[in-house]
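Review form for a predicted model. The reviewer records the input and the model, then writes brief findings.
Reviewer: anonymous (R2)
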Amino acid sequence: MRAVIAEDSVLLRVGVVKVLEMAGFEVVAEVADAEALLTAVAEHRPDIAVVDVRMPPGFTDEGVRAALVIRQQWPKTAVLLLSQYVEERYAADLLSANTSSIGYLLKQRVADVEEFVDALRRVAAGGTALDPQVVSQLLVRRHSGPLDRLTPREREVLELMAGGRSNAGIAGQLVVSESAVAKHINNIFAKLDLPKADADHRRVLAVLSFLGVA
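Model under review:
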């Protein structure tokens, strides 16, 4: 897979490049600001862009705004955002526009190479990857309405769903059977008033409800 990296910190950028190359990605461009990122994506059309949330010149939300442009103009390019701090509204902004091929992780996750590579591959394959700290903070803030109906275990399952985990991944994390996970998920759908329908993806709708963007 081909990747573009946008990160103004030289040391972190070099580290991310090395991790991606070790994981079999081809890094076709590495840049330090949002404008250069958009130019690189337009030129190379990568499979994934790894983007710092805050970049020059303002060091506010340049990376997020560039990510939204990428999602609109080049929807086949997945985006994984990296942030120094938990800024959960950015994850909600991105997911409200598109629920696939998106990730939001804290920069400290890069140090856990296996976990970081797993998130990269999941996002590049069309899935989602939300940092556990972001998900936990969202869970506290969104604990209202239909979410109040969920049991503690169901909240755990929904939290892992929001992090992009499959049923098998959730089962492994919670040390339960996949059938137990499926039962919890069906309960979640029922309690969030998400009836089965051909036109809707209930798993995505449940996560959006959790994030407060649907």
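Findings: The first helix runs from residue 10 to 22.
Further findings: The longest strand covers residues 26-31.
Recommendation: see findings above.
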